């Protein structure tokens, strides 16, 4: 019954955030204007800038930011107990993620769809742009390199997910063409979802596996190469052709998956086997504060969301008033995914007894996406009576599709960054889309195979830095929005308070990790972590200087 309490209280809190708090932020703080000409109309090029139906754009934004992180992070963080994890997901969604994602989208749309890095130059100063871009590029490199590994691992571990994952791309291409010809969105939504779930049933009976060794690489490594070839092609296609319809259908698929999971909880009423607070951790276990706040990033607040909001979503925003629906409600959707993940890995669906749960969570970092798939699949089976082979394929496909859409957007965003560097340093060749894309993919593959060898798992080497770096980026994004509000003469405390909290906890976590990396002699991670910490400090100083000068001038 505790599972029902978690669900009811969590969803009730997020609902209050959506219906009341986000409305207040939209009307009083960001002051959305329905008549404002968005960059999608002003700069419409049919490739990156394209006015888009808010429901379709919500699907793109939601699935791009969701990825595997709101599953992996909560699945790991339950290690400290379910109470702190649930509180951070719920309160983080309401007061942190919603305001952050919404704010990044609004700020970018007000500045011709510029990325949060480019936007920092206008809002704070020219020196911050280059600093910001370093952090953004590192986050994107981590996300793309690791998600390639995650998807490849899912294909190898659950070969039934291969057919539906690639079928979804084929279906999306067809729907994209039909939507572009003004076919009914409702009809296409039904057809797309039916086709997707039909492919899941087929995939559960038709597993597809690559040979154990091909071209001198393992099956896992070959999948990584194939995935980055696909991501390179997808990132160069017009957004309406694949990105929008794929993300929209995946968004509906996620909603259906969430309904199945939440419905299963209400039907089966599973008990919680995880402790409210874990008092059986070993002496060398990592401290909950500050690491909880960087372990659960996506699902509470995530800097990656600001990259997507200001990178691709803002360029497709039809009306400024759509920003609340897409930005804040997108955060609520991800918070809902994180919340049900917590239930799946805390309940008897995963571990029948507290002792069994402690065996699974014997140390920090042992759980992950596979734990969610195991617990969630059993939860759906218990609630709805669907065979476990289908539920496992369904959830594995959901993880793969989320991670895949994030890769699509991530490589596109890396291309934007490289093109922006071409602008900053006046290097015309870097402004070319094809070359910028090839450089982006080459960087990911260089990390994957250069640091990880033939396995292609090199991205995992720098993954320990993702949590703190990603949250630092969230704090810096909130910093840009805060400075922008101060300059506009609007109340800034609603972004400033979350900003201060996130920057303190994430910088604290980064310093803890820096010491760990130094003690282990991992000089690659020491170097990257040090760069991130120093860069953050310099951006904060620049922002503080701008605010001081502005307030002094205002009082003159």
Q: Concise description?
A:
By secondary structure, the chain is mainly alpha-helical.
Explained architecture:
With about 550 residues, this protein is an all-alpha fold. It has one domain (about 1-555): Amino acid/polyamine transporter I (Up-down Bundle), CATH 1.20.1740.10. About 75% of the residues lie in helices and about 0% in strands. The chain contains 22 helices and two strands. It has helices at about 1-30, 40, 55-65, 70-75, 80-110, 115-125, 125-155, 160-180, 185-205, 220-235, 245-270, 290-295, 305-310, 320-345, 355-360, 370-385, 390-425, 435-450, 460, 465-485, 495-520, 525-555; strands spanning about 215, 215-220. It has a two-stranded antiparallel ribbon. A hairpin with a 2-residue loop joins strand 1 (about 215) and strand 2 (about 215-220). Helix 5 crosses helix 20 (about 465-485), helix 7 runs antiparallel to helix 17 and helix 16 (about 370-385) crosses helix 17 (about 390-425). The longest helix is centred in the C-terminal third of the chain and has 37 residues, at about 390-425. It is globular and about 70 Å long. The model has no long low-confidence stretch (mean pLDDT about 90).
**Fourth CATH level, the homologous superfamily:** Amino acid/polyamine transporter I
Order of helices and strands: HHHHHHHHHEEHHHHHHHHHHHHH
Strand content of the residues, in percent?
under 5%
Gyration radius over CA: 22 Å
Counting DSSP E segments of at least 2 residues, the number of strands comes to 2
Unreliable segments of 5+ consecutive residues:
none
Distance between the termini: 61 Å
Q: Pairing-aware structural class of the strands and helices?
A: mainly alpha
Kindly give the count of domains.
1
| Assembly classification | single chain
Strand order within the widest beta sheet: 1-2
Number of helices: 22
And the CATH topology? Amino acid/polyamine transporter I
**From the coordinates shown, what is the CATH architecture?**
Up-down Bundle
CATH class bucket? Mainly Alpha
Shape: globular
Helix content: over 70%
């Amino acid at each position: 019954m505790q599972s029902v309490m978690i669900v009811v209280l969590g969803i009730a809190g997020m609902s209050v955030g959506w219906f009341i708090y986000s409305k207040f932020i939209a009307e009083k703080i960001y002051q959305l204007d329905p008549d404002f000409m968005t960059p999608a109309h002003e700069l419409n090029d049919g490739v990156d800038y394209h006015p888009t139906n808010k429901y379709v754009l919500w699907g793109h934004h939601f699935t791009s930011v969701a990825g595997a992180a709101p599953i992996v992070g909560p699945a790991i963080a339950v290690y400290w107990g379910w109470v702190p994890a649930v509180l951070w997901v719920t309160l983080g969604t309401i007061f942190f993620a919603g305001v952050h994602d919404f704010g990044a989208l609004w700020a970018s749309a007000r500045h011709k769809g510029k990325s949060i890095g480019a936007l920092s130059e206008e809002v704070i100063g020219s020196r911050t742009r280059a600093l910001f871009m370093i952090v953004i590029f590192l986050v994107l490199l981590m996300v793309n390199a690791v998600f390639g590994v995650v998807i490849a691992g899912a294909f190898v571990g659950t070969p039934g997910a291969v057919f539906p994952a690639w079928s979804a791309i084929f279906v999306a291409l067809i729907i994209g063409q039909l939507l572009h010809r003004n076919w009914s969105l409702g009809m296409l939504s039904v057809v797309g979802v039916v086709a997707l779930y039909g492919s899941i049933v087929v995939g559960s009976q038709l597993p597809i596996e690559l040979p154990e060794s091909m071209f001198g690489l393992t099956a896992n490594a070959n999948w990584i190469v194939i995935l980055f070839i696909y991501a390179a092609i997808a990132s160069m296609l017009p957004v309406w052709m694949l990105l929008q319809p794929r993300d929209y259908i995946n968004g509906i698929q996620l909603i259906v998956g969430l309904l199945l999971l939440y419905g299963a909880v209400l039907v089966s009423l599973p008990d919680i086997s995880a402790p409210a607070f874990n008092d059986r951790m070993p002496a060398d276990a990592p401290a909950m504060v500050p690491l909880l706040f960087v372990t659960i990033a996506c699902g509470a607040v995530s800097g990656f969301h600001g990259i997507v909001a200001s990178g691709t979503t803002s360029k497709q925003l039809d009306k400024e008033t759509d920003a609340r629906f897409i930005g804040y409600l997108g955060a609520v959707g991800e918070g809902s995914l994180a919340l049900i993940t917590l239930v799946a890995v805390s309940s008897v669906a995963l571990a029948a007894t507290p002792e069994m749960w402690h065996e699974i969570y014997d140390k920090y970092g042992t759980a992950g996406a596979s734990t969610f798939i195991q617990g969630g699949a059993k939860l759906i089976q218990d609630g709805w009576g669907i065979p476990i082979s289908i539920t496992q394929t369904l959830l594995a496909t959901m993880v793969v599709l989320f991670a895949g859409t994030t890769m699509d957007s991530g490589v596109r965003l890396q291309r934007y960054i490289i093109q922006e560097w071409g602008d900053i340093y006046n290097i015309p060749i870097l402004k070319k889309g094809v070359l910028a894309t090839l450089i982006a993919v080459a960087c990911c593959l260089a990390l994957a195979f250069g640091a990880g060898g033939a396995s292609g798992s090199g991205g995992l080497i720098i993954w320990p830095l993702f949590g703190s770096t990603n949250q630092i980026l969230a704090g810096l994004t909130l910093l840009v929005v805060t400075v922008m509000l101060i300059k506009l003469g609007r109340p800034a405390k609603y972004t400033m308070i979350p900003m201060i909290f996130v920057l303190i906890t994430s910088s604290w976590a980064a310093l803890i990790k820096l010491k760990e990396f130094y003690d282990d002699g991992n000089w690659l991670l020491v170097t990257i972590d040090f760069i991130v910490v120093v860069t953050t400090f310099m951006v904060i100083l620049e922002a503080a200087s701008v605010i001081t000068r502005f307030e002094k001038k205002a009082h003159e």
